[in-house]
Specification:
This protein is mostly helical. The chain has one domain. It has eight helices and two strands. Helix 3 crosses helix 4, helix 3 runs antiparallel to helix 7 and helix 4 crosses helix 6. The longest helix is centred in the middle third of the chain and has 31 residues.
């Protein structure tokens, strides 16, 4: 069993403190290329979560059997096998979305987020901890890509969740601006993605700095004089 404080630490690091997209700045290729819509970012993140969780579980379970000298090739082999399964599942069940995401699902194999976590965490911790770390690191990536994709889509076309009908045929994109809105093409191009990502990083740093300043202003906890009595 995992302790509550360990769970909190793993979740907090993955979702916020060590967020792979706006703190560690890893995996910029899918981050900037796929997030033209929120749906694309969410679905690629879900695929990554599955791969990270299962690869963390497998590598943590087998870490004592893997020779140190060949650990990286073995890690890549395990990740590649899992990515192949996810790739085939997307192709079979979400073919239209699979065509949109294209090469970026197979490229999860070389995603530095996955390889960094299996090397830095899964290879040194228990299977349960490694699985949770993979899940929450993926969740941190998911909300970042979802927000970035939603902002790019909103600025470019005035809608959010475009392409959701590829996943849920009965649902349709949400239009937030009038149909007369002509859009802003820059948001769909790489420069727009860089600008919005920079804004998200600045926002995260501002929140963290504000929280740190607030913590410093907190009065120290009163010290209890244990075992000391005035004469």
């Amino acid at each position: 069993m995992i302790k509550r404080d360990e769970f909190t630490t793993i979740a907090g690091n993955g979702i916020w403190k060590q967020n792979t997209s706006i703190v560690q700045i890893l995996g910029l290729c899918p981050l900037l290329a796929v997030t033209t819509t929120a749906v694309n970012g969410i679905m690629l993140s879900l695929a990554t979560i599955i791969v990270m969780a299962l690869s963390g579980l497998a590598i943590a379970s087998l870490r004592n059997l893997i020779p140190h000298e060949i650990r990286i090739p073995v890690f890549i082999l395990i990740v590649a096998a899992l990515v192949t399964v996810v790739d085939l599942l997307f192709n079979a069940n979400l073919h239209e979305l699979y065509l949109v995401l294209g090469i970026f699902i197979p490229l999860i194999v070389t995603n530095c987020i996955v390889l960094a976590r299996v090397e830095a965490f899964a290879a040194k911790n228990s299977p349960l901890q490694a699985t949770l770390d993979g899940i929450f690191m993926g969740v941190g990536m998911l909300w970042t890509l979802a927000v970035l994709g939603a902002m790019r889509e909103f600025i470019a076309s005035g809608t959010v969740f475009g392409g959701i009908d590829m996943v849920f045929p009965n649902l349709h994109p949400i239009r937030l601006l009038p149909e007369t809105y002509h859009g802003f093409l820059l948001a769909l191009l790489p420069p727009g993605a860089f600008i919005l990502l920079g804004c998200m990083i600045a926002w995260k740093n501002w929140i963290s700095a504000k929280a740190a300043a607030h913590a410093q202003k907190q009065p120290p906890a009163p010290m209890e004089a244990a075992g000391c009595h005035s004469l």
